[in-house]
Amino acid sequence: MPKDLLRHNETWLVLLIVVIGAGIAAANPAFLSFENLGGLLKSYSMVGIMAVGVLVVLILSGSPDVSFTAIAQVVEYGIAVATLAWGGNIFLALLAAGAAGAILGAANGAVVHYFRVPTIIVTIATFNVYFGMLYVITKGKLINVVHPMFREFGNTLLFAQTSAIGGRYGLSLMPLVWLAAALLGWFLLRRTLLGRSIYAIGGNEVAAERMGMNLLRTRLFAFGFIGLLSGVAAVVHLSIVQSVVPNIIVGKELEVIAAVVLGGASVFGGKGSVLGAVLGVLLFAVLGNGLTLLGISTYWYNVAIGVVITVAITNSAYQRLRRERARVHVKVEA
Amino acid sequence: MTPMAFLRRPSHERALSAALILIVVLMAALNWPRFLTEGNAISMAYQLPIVAFLSLGMMVTMVTGGINLAIIATANFTGIVTVLILRALAGEAADSAGAGVALVAMAGGLAAAMAVGALMGWLIAYVEVPAILATLAFMTLLNGVNLVITRGYTLSGFPEFLIAIGNGTVGPVPIPFLILVAAVILLGVFLRRAQTGLSFYLVGSNPVAATYSNIRVRRVLVRTYVLSSAFAALTAFIMMGQLNSVKANYAESYLLVSVLACFLGGVDPFGGAGTLAGMVLSVVILQVVSTGVNLLRMDPFFIQAMWGFIILALVALSFAGDRLRERRRLRAARILRAAPPSAASPGPKPAAAITPGERP
């Protein structure tokens, strides 16, 4: 049983998070406080939600989507403008943002399917189209005042408490949205036919097609799903920052992809788990938060992340290499 | 290939040449008479080398079936190391240091870049880490190191010699352009004639076959990333000369542009195919488009959106072309079956004779 557990990437990640967390907590006990952990989960929920979507596309196509931050940026701007004009409530906003994101995402899926081009090429193109057009249409204007429902949604706290200096803290709703996205992702991937075909197509496209799996529908769905989650992530981000700076989300794509890959998703497709993606984001969160608590300059953040990614991918590649060498090769004459 | 054969046979380079001519005519017409001037040609020759060197560095890794996402970070790292050596040698008087000191510092920067390349290549070749991951990790790591060294500040004040590399001219021709021409010729000879260069294509198209052909695949892969990083270093020296400064995050937006240049140039992202001629045409096209659109005083973000539309259009066009060729081949095959060729009539030519370095 323990030997089995050690084979899983997720176990290693949990161990790594616990070890790093323990180190930080030993140096600064404030790390384990409800106030700190609540804030940490809240500030990483946008990245966490996106990571679930990135995972699904990576499993399907074995090539990362890089346009999701541009989609989130467009949706964030659009939803901020739309709610100011028409009002509505947060559920409608989430629904509309998800739908708009899903359409923009599914467009990627259609191009990938019909023109048979690698995902990364298509999404570089649509990243430029979405982000460029956003600036052309909006002239890059900031939105400083957003509809009050976002503040309400972002500031609602469960188990609210008052800190010594009078600030309120507690569990924000944002990590719950993240949790919901992760559960939805898990259910889709592990409990539905669609999810199984995503794994199958990612593992071997030709074989999956011969088994009768619908490539077009699966692709439209997976790319639509990352779009939907990007839209939801945009609302979460908007609720936290309560203003729109039209280039604040873009530029994070490689960090999100790195977190997902750290979680054990294969860059060749067909492999990966939602739990791993969530743990990958948590590891980044703990590292970033820990550096701040230890009083280390934030300049070191990228170095720390870089070292962790390098060690993790080297370790997993090395483990695979060892397993392959240990395997007995039996030659069968055809 | 003779010129006539080039004109008659469909190839990616032929399509790119036609596109280049069309775009030059279009831009000249839209910007009449500003585009077709000596001044504009010289300014394009100044700007071209940076994107060109980055794209060539990206191309060699893609030919072997990899990618180098760390190329910009490596370039910035090279610049910073060069400045550090410069300051260590010349102290406060770094901006009046002689050519010898500058050369030593540049050699140090180049060595640092190549060491980074060797390390990445080792991870990719011997530990078998996928290239996209290894270079992504190094990108993050180097960006971090760059930021820690510079604290986000801009370092400036370089000797004459370095400024001349970026800004100098020989007659009317900018020095960076001359360096680019020399590098393209050298790389061309290397890819066509040198054993290692030829192995890039073999390793990229079929690593197993390459292994059985007595090619040391792992060693070739390490060399690929060392070469790619050397191109990053070249970019760094030219950027230092042109901007008279280095910073942790210069030119980050060029990363996706260099991937785009390779795609436009006909490099197969899965490895094994891609010609230098295609790459040169592709970066020249990108430069002509961006200069032309700049002269029109268009919104730079519209230009960014346009890049996206261009890739999508290209993808659609190449798909349509493939379909057309496929249909023609099928028809030819049907005719062939209806009337089997006798010894007298040679019949249609074989559909595709694949030569190394060309898209199958």
Could you characterize the architecture of this molecule?
- The complex is a heterodimer of chains A (334) and B (360).
- Chain A is mainly α.
- Helices cover 73% and strands 3% of the residues of chain A.
- Chain A has 15 helices and two strands.
- Chain A has a two-stranded antiparallel sheet with strand order 1-2.
- Chain A is globular, with a radius of gyration of 21 Å.
- With 360 residues, chain B is mainly alpha-helical.
- Helices cover 72% and strands 2% of the residues of chain B.
- A two-stranded antiparallel sheet of chain B has the order 1-4. Chain B has a two-stranded antiparallel sheet with strand order 2-3.
- Chain B is globular, with a radius of gyration of 23 Å.
- The two termini of chain B are 17 Å apart.
- At the A-B interface, helix 6, helix 7, helix 13 and helix 15 of A face helix 6, helix 12 and helix 14 of B.
The helix content of chain A is over 70%
| Head-to-tail CA distance between termini of chain A | 38 Å
Total number of beta strands of chain B: 4
Class from helix and strand fractions of chain B: mainly alpha
As laid out across the biggest beta sheet of chain A, the strand order is: 1-2
The pair of chains with the biggest contact is: A-B, 50 and 43 residues
The largest beta-sheet of chain B arranges its strands as 1-4
Largest sheet of chain B: 2 strands, antiparallel
Question: What class, by secondary structure content of chain A?
Answer: mainly alpha
